[in-house]
Amino acid sequence: MKQYDIYGIGNALVDTEYKVDYAFLDHAKLTKGIMTLIEEDDRKRLIRLLEHDYEHLAVKQAGGGSAANTMVIVSQLGSPAFYSCKVAADSAGDFFVKDLSDAGVDTNLSDDREQGATGQCISIVTPDAERTMTTCLGITNFLSPHELNRDALKNSSYLYIEGYLVSSTTGFQAALEAQEIARTSDVLISLTLSDPAMIENFRANYDQLLSHGVDLLFCNHDEARLLTGAESVEDCVAALKKICKTFVITCGKTGSVAFDGQDLTTATGVPAKAVDTTGAGDIFAGTFLHCLCRGLGFSEANELANKFASKLVSCFGARLTQEEVDSLIK
Fold it and tell me: Whole-angstrom Cα distance, residue 221 to residue 231?
């Protein structure tokens, strides 16, 4: 029996969230619903614009990063998880380390960390509950194969690769090396495409990961369209069958479709009053993987993952509390 159900690798970020109106996005020249990489000076200017010019105060600060959110829900559901990432020896790094430790997620992190700035993400939520993110990667931009724990990875059932790593030269190398370790150690490989902008700007890196073998792909409909060149969900399904063994396409409030290698199952969305879509895909993937590790099929995993993602979008923030998770399980 493996020690860990899921071994994740991704960017470690501390999230700061704000509620804004549509006019703010125009003034800040941000594209709604897209993640934009920025530098530290740009992050400081955006904070000034939010808090001083527009007088928007942060609603919430929390540990974040896409794959980190996934590992947290995996742990909350009762599946042992390990997360490889990189944070600095600063207050934000201390916050992140404690946050994952409190969630029961094992990591490669220690008290002996490099100097620098821990990555931070500003998540801006508009009245339609859509999230627009600006990310200053900081030290996580230099995540490398050095941060991998090979023993933990070999002793896991699934590897989960965060697609945002394709934007970093060393992060991409870490993803490729983790993929190779998994392939030679009987560890199933899962990948999330993460964001449409990543596919548009780093398509060659995605093609390389997929050509090396992905057992389970997570994407939303927009990402599936960009990857395949198809339009409808049905055409995306047909195209994805030629790219990877199994996959899931999430379609927002209408639900999701999942292909287990033989059968295609559809799950309808669970009605919810959406206030914030941040982290919905992360929670979906973590719940889905947990179900597979517990012996459930794609149909059951698809249904439960929609249920948890629906609960998340009805709350503000990228994670559920343990109490909310326990309530949904009951």
Answer: 9
Q: How many Cβ atoms from other residues are within 10 Å of residue 169's Cβ? A: 12
- Per the CB < 8 A criterion, the answer to whether 236 and 249 are in contact is yes
Selection from 18, 13, 30, 154 nearest residue 85 by Cα: 13
pLDDT digits (tens, 9 = 90+) for 63-79: 999 999 999 999 999 99
- Structural domains in the chain plus CATH codes: 4-12+64-112+141-329 (3.40.1190.20)
- Provide the angle, in degrees to the nearest 10, between the axes of the packed helices 66-76 and 91-102: 30
Best CA proximity match to 250, nearest among 324, 167, 307: 307
Burial of residue 158 (number of CB atoms within 10 Å: 0-12, 13-18, 19+): buried
- Furthest CA-CA distance within the chain: 56
Phi, psi angles (nearest 5°) of residue 224: -65, -40
Residue 215 and residue 153: Cα distance in Å, rounded?
16
**What CA–CA distance (Å, rounded) separates 66 from 11?**
7
Distance (Å) of CA 287 to CA 3, 76, 279, 320:
18, 10, 12, 12
Residue 185 φ then ψ, to 5°: -125, 20
Q: Taking the CA atoms of 202, 205, 210 and 216 in sequence, report the sign of the dihedral they define.
A: negative
151 has a pLDDT exceeding 80? yes
Mean pLDDT confidence for 254-265: 97
CA-to-CA distance for 273 and 314, rounded, in angstroms?
Answer: 5
Backbone angles phi, psi at 43, to 5 degrees: -60, -45
How sure is the predictor about 275, in pLDDT bands with cuts at 50, 70 and 90? confident
Residues 6+ apart with CB under 8 A from 119: 11, 12, 13, 14, 65, 87, 135, 136, 137, 138, 139, 140, 141
Written as one string, the DSSP assignment of 182-240 is HHTTT-EEEEE---HHHHHH-HHHHHHHHHT--SEEEEEHHHHHHHH---SHHHHHHHH
pTM higher than 0.85: yes
